[in-house]
Every structure is written in structure tokens, then in C-alpha cells.
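How a chain folds remains the central question behind the approach discussed here. For one protein, we set the task of working out the C-alpha cells from the amino acid sequence alone. The sequence in question and its C-alpha cells are set out directly beneath this paragraph.

_____
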Amino acid sequence: MVDRNLKNFEALGAKRLISTCAGCYRTYGELYPEHGRDTGMEVAHAVQYIDRLIAEGRLQFKADAKPVKVAYHDPCDLGRHMQVYDEPRRILEALPGVELVEFPKNRNLAACCGGGGGVKAFDNPLSQDIAVERVKEALSVGAEVITSACQSCKSNLNQGAALARKQKLGKVRVVDITELVVKRLA
């Protein structure tokens, strides 16, 4: 599969690979080179690219966005494995109307959402329990929205949010960080 991917990238003449998936970013950015298989491209996660676009003044946002408290969930692959912590937070701080509130456990101490590492496939009830705990943490800091930069986290936290509503623990929306950016573009 690695050979096929590298041949496809070469055939496309791609110079940059931007991933919205934390696991794919880690695979192409760390695991391929670690096993002697360099992609020959700049590899970035979408949050790194968006952060760069904001810093360069290439993205403009609506000034009249509705205020919302947002908790950023650090995905395991993007955070602890790849040390990408500041870029998503800078993005959120640049978005009009967004107030970043931090989970009690964040950055390299962030708790897993329960959706990765095979947990969901191996023990779905445990995965859901972990997600509900993460949602409860977000609610404890006043978050109205949980955002992440990983679709697996988004999916599992959405299930946790639904269970939390069902258990009458509170309401919180779960969205990908790119969705927050797009909704606030001018």
C-alpha cells in the first residue's frame, strides 16, 4: 500500500499533502519517514495549514459571529504523538465570537475520547463511557461546543454528547475545527 500511495503521489506531481485526519497526518508525516519511505512532499495537518493562512492574512472572517464557548479536544495522534497543540488554539482564538475554554485535561495530558486505538471496535460500551466522561468535562468548563481536528474524535464525542443529553447531563454540540472556520469565513 505504501508503494502504491507513493507512486500515486509521484504521478500527480503533488508537492504538498494536507490531511484533515490526525491518523493519516501521523502516518504520512512520521511513520512513512520512520520506515524509510519519505513522501517527497510537505506533509501538514489542516490545522497547521489554516493557522499559516490566518498568520499570512489570507483568511478573512465575519466580524458579527454569534458568541460561543468552545472546548478544543486534543486528538491523540495530532497531540501527544505529533505535538501539534498551539495551531488549533491559535485558530480558535482568531475566530470572531469564539471563546476558547480548556478541558481540565488538555494538551499532552488530554484524555482520549475513546474512539481511537481500537477501543471502539474492541469494546463499544467502554468507548461510549469514555466519550461521555469527556463530554462531562467539557460541560464542567461551560463549553457549548466541543471541537477537535480528528473525525474519529468528532464521531465518538458526538455519540457521547447524545448519551449525555439522554442522561440529562447537559447539551453540547460537537464539530470539526474546519467546520468552525468555514462558518466564520467572510
Remarks:
- The chain has two domains: 2-54, 61-184.
- The mean pLDDT is 95.
- Residues 61-184 form a domain with the Rossmann fold fold (CATH 3.40.50).
